[in-house]
């Protein structure tokens, strides 16, 4: 299975975990990342996601996000066709 997690998903484990829904969503994201890390699933990462992570103002959080996507993944390059769809 190939999965794409956007910046919002990847940031969820760093949110305040006192809310049950946020905690459950965080656990789901962690489970997905573990499956990708073991090779059962494949994480898709886009140039846009890499750009968004690079623009994260908090250096510590930026490093943690980079570590999350350091697992084996496939990068989806931003092509002219994709850029046209986004506009």
Uncertain spans, ≥5 residues at pLDDT below 50? none
DSSP helical segment count: 5
Shape: globular
The biggest sheet, with number of strands, parallel, antiparallel or mixed sense and barrel status, is: 3 strands, parallel
Decide which structural class fits the backbone. alpha/beta
Note the quaternary state here. single chain
> Strands of the biggest beta sheet: in what spatial order?
1-2-3
Distance between the termini: 29 Å
Q: Could you tell me the mean pLDDT?
A: 91
Helical proportion, percent range: 55-70%
Order of helices and strands: EHHEHHEH
Number of domains: 1
Number of strands: 3
Q: What would a concise description of this structure say?
A:
With 87 residues, this protein is α/β, with parallel strands linked by helices.
Notes on the structure:
The chain has 87 residues and is an alpha/beta fold. It has one domain (2-86). It is 55% helix and 14% strand. The chain contains 5 helices and 3 strands. It has helices at 7-11, 20-37, 47-54, 59-68, 80-86; strands at 2-4, 42-46, 73-76.
